[in-house]
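pasting for ref
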Amino acid sequence: MQTSIDAAETPPETARRLIEQNDYLTLATADRDGRPWASPVWFAARDLAEFFWISRPGRRHSRNIEGRSEVSLVVFDSTAPVGRAEAVYVEAVARQVDDVDLAAGLAIYGARSAARGLSVWDESAVRDDAPHRLYVARATAVFVLDETENRVSVALT
């Protein structure tokens, strides 16, 4: 089974390509007691370092982040044939974006939204009495698989 990087690409190129080509990531969280939860979220990324999504604070993954900020993410093409899958694996620390970083985070999220033909969210949609908030996961480690399905670390840039 080949679940690995293309020999013509470097690991960072593979990771960037997969992030650019895919709209959803799987966000894995755990509550304070360690009970796991995985959620698909539409995302935007700043290179390999930051992953942004919008969610409701009351959702299970959002509540989990409030209690335990360590998360993992996987970005992959679910339409790839069996044996041809590739993925980016990320260890990260997540949080709700605060007011200081909100404009910059929404700019990244908005640029991807616009590029995909979607509505662009403004600050009023993710603060005060609005039902949604912007979240960010800051990568601490990023990996892809090599041709023998071993993890290859990708430098954070």
